[in-house]
Amino acid sequence: MSTTSNSSINRRVERVSPELVEAAARFQAAILADVAGRRGTLNGRVKPLAPTMKVAGPAVTVEVRPGDNLAIHAALAVAKPGDVIVVDGKGDVSCALIGEIMATQAHATGIAGFVIDAAVRDSHELAQGEFPVFSAGLNPCGPTKSVAGRVNIPISAAGASVNPGDLIVGDADGVVVIPKDDVARIVELAQKKLDAETARIAAIRNGDTRAGWLEKELRAAGMLAEGEVL
């Protein structure tokens, strides 16, 4: 008889380290996305319920059938403090997958936040709270709890590939995913970009308002002739 498990719940996840999570959390999602090659961001439909909400942590991934949250309850049971539960809800907003009760449970167990490509409800209460929730929309209709899903498997959430343990960073601009094995490199590049942008903003405020690279790129694009200047 085969001893291979066919469980839909994977409990063993290699997570990005807490030290790298802390280092990456200092940067905007936009900075991280830029230095990651302008990829890895979730579709803009996934937004924080309040613009002040921020989240950073390793992903616990969930795949569900539209409108059913049974697998999210399983994820709540196996997630570790600091994890971000990321749900591939297929972008469906016909009913909510979580609300105030599940968010309260997640917060009480130390989970860092929810990122859900689907609808949520109790939005007023959640937006006023401290627990970060990112979602694709709102709907007062509740979910079913009867259809099998999967926990901690590779998913695609709002167009972004997410593997269990990958770094998730979200803020007012949206959510970016950084593969766990690439986080150290991305953090180093993010600091260099932040330093460069800080210097550029200071230069603009001091009167240097013309982008030094602009004319070269305009010529390369055929918008300026050789020798022509703005």
From TrEMBL:
Gene3D superfamilies, sorted: Ribonuclease E inhibitor RraA/RraA-like (3.50.30.40)
InterPro entries: RraA/RraA-like, RraA/RraA-like_sf
Cofactor(s), names only, from the UniProt record: a divalent metal cation; Mg(2+)
Pfam family, one: RraA-like
UniProt-annotated binding residues for Mg(2+): 122
Signal peptide, first to last residue: none
GO MF annotations, alphabetized: metal ion binding
Domain of life: Bacteria
Positions with a binding annotation for substrate: 99-102, 121
CDD domains with a match to the protein in the record: RraA_family
Keywords: Magnesium, Metal-binding
Coiled-coil regions listed in the entry: none
Name the record gives this protein: Putative 4-hydroxy-4-methyl-2-oxoglutarate aldolase
Organism: Caballeronia temeraria
